[in-house]
């Protein structure tokens, strides 16, 4: 079982000048050094979410203190709009998810949390799966772009997993949300990281099998310097 590209065998012709030329062409189209961008957009999404929760927490504390001190609630277009948005958020936040979905699929217990989990999943999967190319013509041209994207995104979620694991954590301090209410989010982010890690690993296995069968796969994964596809799963 072999794979060829423009007349070159992906395994037997690795050292030829033509192979090196096609390697440079492949890297020019989708450079490995451009892939960390996907880790950044993953972190940006998490930071933006925490920032919005922080603004909500500050607004609630401000209005509560005004009420406790005997002042009237703030009036005007912006405060009114904020109260309307807050009301809708609480409405969706307190609607319980059907029990069978929670019990069978371990979905979050409220519709608001479920909608957030769905939107986050769509965001991560779109950034991971929509950009092309998924694979390079030959494995020797570089790591599969899909694998690199998924691995970097999986690793980018690791800091959030560690922070959410503690009872006293920075996210709870900034947002005013107790750790017990963030447990589901810790589990969800961990699952998202695991799924991305699996997506990261599959292209390395698939392409090695396609180009040289099980013997090529065994050689690849017993090579001391071959670590691609493994670190995100370990994390």
UniProtKB/TrEMBL annotation:
Signal peptide positions (record): none
GO MF: ferric-chelate reductase activity
Question: How is this protein annotated for GO cellular component?
Answer: plasma membrane
Major localization listed first in the record, in broad terms: membrane
Topology relative to the lipid bilayer, per the entry, is: Multi-pass membrane protein
Q: Where are the transmembrane segments?
A: 37-55, 76-95, 115-134, 146-165, 185-205
Q: Where in the cell is it found?
A: Membrane
Q: Does the keyword Acyltransferase apply?
A: no
Q: What InterPro entries does the database record attribute to this sequence? A: Fe3_Rdtase_TM_dom, Ferric/Cupric_Reductase
UniProtKB keywords: FAD, Flavoprotein, Ion transport, Membrane, Transmembrane, Transmembrane helix, Transport
Residues in Ferric oxidoreductase domain copies: 150-230
One biological process term from GO is: copper ion import
Any Pfam family hit:
Ferric_reduct
Entry protein name: CIC11C00000005701
